[in-house]
Protein 1
Amino acid sequence: MIPAAFDYKRAGSSEEAVALIAEYGDEAKFLAGGHSLLPMMKLRLAVPTVLVDIGRVGDLSYIDDRDDHIAIGALATHRSLETSELLIAECPILAHVASKVGDPQVRHRGTIGGSLAHSDPASDLPAAVLALGGSLIAQGPNGEREVQVSDFFTGYFESALSDDEMLTEIRLPKAPGDSWNYQKFNRRAQDWAIVGVAAVQVQGTTQVSLVNMGSTPLRAAAVEAALAGGASSVEAAEQAAEGTDAPTDLNASPEYRAHLARVLTRRALEAAGIS
C-alpha cells in the first residue's frame, strides 16, 4: 500500500500546469483532490513518475452564469456544487448529485474536473453531466478545444483528453425546475453506485444516463427513444438495459444490474414527473 517513488511539482496557474504536463508527458499525472488517483497509486495501479499538483490553481474554481449556459471551473469542489445557489436554481440535478458523492471530507476536497477526467463509470458526477449534455474545455500546449460531453468518455478510466491536456471548464445547459431525479443503489450510504440513473428534462427533451452499466457512463438511448415515441415511463424503463454491457463483480451480476437499471429508471422518471 505504498506508492512508487515520484517527483512532485506544484503549478500556480493553468498555463504552468499545462507546461509541466507537456514537459513530462505520459509519465505525469495531475493531482487535485486526489481521491481517485492516490488509492490507485497505493495499489500501484497508477505509477506516475511526476505528480503535478493543481489543487491551488485558483482561477479554475468558479461557477458562473453565462446567460445561455452555466460554466464551471474544473477545480470547483463537490461541496461548492452542492451549495451553489446558482446551480440549485438553474441546474438542481447537478447540485443534488454532488451531495451524494462520498462524505463531507471527500466533497470538500474532490473536484468535478477530477471526477470527469478520471472517467470512472461508477462515479455519480460523470453520469449527471452526461445526462445534461453540454461540452468540456480542454487546454493544451496548442490552446483550447471544446469536446462534447457525449464524446468525452472513451473507455474504462479513459477520456478524450490527450496526455498533454488538462480539463479546465465544464459548460452545461440550464435545466431549472423539478423535472429531474437521481436514483443510486448501493450497499452503504457512501459507497460507489452498484447502479445509478440520472433523468432530467433539458429544453423539453428527456435525457437519461446510467451509472455502472458499462465501461463508461452511458446515455440510455433506448429509453430516450421510447419516450420520444410516446411510450409511458413504465414502458420506456423496460428498455433501460438495452445496448449496455454491465460488469460483474462481488456486488452484482450483469443480470442483476440490468434489473436494477430498469427499476431505477422507472423510479427516476416517475419521481421527475416524466410519464
Protein 2
Amino acid sequence: MAWLSSLLGGLLAFIVGDLIRVRRRHVVDSMRRAGIADPERNASAMYRSLGRALFDLAFAPWLLRRVQIDPRAISLASERGAVIATAHTGSFDLVACAAARALSFTVVTKRLSIRFLDGIWQGWRSGRGVSLVAAGDAARAARRALASGGCVAMIFDQAPERERGTVLAPFLGQIARVDLAPALIAARARVPLLVVLARRTPDGDHRAELVLALEPPARPEARRAWAEAAMVAATAELDALVRRHPDQWLWMHRRWKDAPAAPAPSFGPSAVEMR
C-alpha cells in the first residue's frame, strides 16, 4: 500500500500545490527566509509529503508494520506516563496510530475549519485506535490520562492563540512564539517531557525518534524557567530536523504570524535536566 499512498499523495499534491497553489507563496517565502536551498523544488516536495501523509493515515492498517518507534520513548513513557511533545513532521498521524498500539495514548487535537473534512480526518484517527481530545479540554484530559499512568501527545509547532503561557524562540530564521503547555503539564504532573519527532526514510519506512527526554524540577517555583528552557530546546531540535528534511514539515501553517521581530531570549542548558 505504500506505493498507492505515494501515488495518490503525489496526485493530491499536484492539485493542491501546483494547480490551486494553496498557500504556495507563503511556503516558498518561509523556506527562503529560513535559507532552505531551492525553495520552489522543496515546496513541491512538501506538498507531496503532506499528500502522502494523508493517505498513509487512510491506509494505516496496512502500513503500521513499517513504523518504528524509538524503544527509549516506549520505555520511558511506560514507566509512569509522559507528555509527548511532537510536530507535524513525516507521516505524523500514521505514527500516532502506531503509538496507540504500544501505549495508553491520548492526542490533543484541533478541529479543522471545514467540518466535512474534519469529520473524515478525526474519524480515520479515532477508528485506528487514537484517543482524541479537543485542545480546549487539554489540561483536564491530560490530568486524567497522566493520573492513570497514560501518555498525552501535544503539538508544539503551531502558533499559539494567546501570548500568555508562551516563550519566544528562534526557529527557521525567524522568531516564533512557542506554547509552554506541554512542559507545564509535564511539570505539574511530575512526569517526563519526551520530545519525539517523526520522519519518513528514503525506503518508505517511518521512524519516530526520541530527541529529548526532560525531567521536570521538583520545586514548583522552578517550573516556569524549566518549561521555557525545555520548549526552546524542543524547538531547536525541530529546527535541526526540518533543515535536514525540509520537505517533511508542514510549512503551510502561519507559524510566525504574531511573533515580534526582536531577538528571542536564550536559555542556558542548566535549566534543563536530561535523562
Protein 3
Amino acid sequence: MNFAGAVAYLVGGSSGIGLAAARELASRGAHVVIIARETKRLDQALGSLSSLRVSPDQHCSAVSMDVSRWHEVAACMRDTVAATGAPDVLINCAGRACPGRFEEIDMERAEETLKINLMGCIHIARALVPCMKEKGGIIVNTSSVAGLVGVFGYTDYCASKYGVIGFSEALRSELKPWGIKVQVLCPPDTDTPGYAAENLTKPRETKMISSAAKIMTPEQVALALIKGMASDRFLIIPGLESRMIYLAKRVFPSLVEWVMDRQIRQCQNEMGDGR
C-alpha cells in the first residue's frame, strides 16, 4: 500500500504503538499528525519523526488534546483539518489500562478508562468522519486481545476494548458506501510505557495468565498494522499466538474458559485463597 503523500492522523502518537506506527508512515512518505495529551512527549516524538521524512515537502506536526473531552476534540480537529487537510488515514491508539480486582477498582478511574479507550475513539471518529467522507480513507481503532477474550483483573479495560470492536463493526457498515474502510487492531501484550505501568497493579492471577505469553515490540505491532491496512480484514491481530487465541475462542470457547479458570484456581490455591 502506497502512503506517499497521504495525510495520516495518529491519536496516541507520542509513544508506544502509536509512535511506532507514525514512524513507519513517515518513513513511507506520509504527512503525519501525532495527537496526544502530554506536550513534552509530543515534542520529543515529533523530533524523532522529522529525520524520517523522505521528501522536503513532507510535513509532520503535533496536536495536544484530551480525547476524553468531546468539545475539546471537536475544536482541535476542526483547526487541525484546516491546517493539514482531512486525514486519509486515521489511527486511534490512545488508551490506558489500570488492572486490579473488580471490587477494588476506583469507579472514577474505571470511568476514565472507558472515556479514553472507548469514548476517545467515538469522539475522534465523530469529529473527522464528515470531512473524510469527501475523499474516503481508512480508520483503524485499537482494541486488544483483551477485547477478544475476557481477562482476569481487566474488567473495565475489557469492557472498553470489547466496546471498541462493537463500535467499529457498526461504523464499518455505515461508512462503507463512502469509501471509508474501518478496521480494528487487536495487539497482545506490547512492550510500551503503559505496559510497564500495568505490571505495578496486576493481580497475581493476571500475571500468571500472561506469564507464558510472548510480548511484542511496538515496532512489530506497527509493521503488522501497516500490512493489515493493505488487506480487507476487519480485525488486525498481530502475532501467531494471538491469532490462535482468537481462533480458539471462536471455535472452542469452553476450552479457553477452562484453561484460564484452571490457571486462576492454581494461583489462588498457591496463595491459600482458593474458592
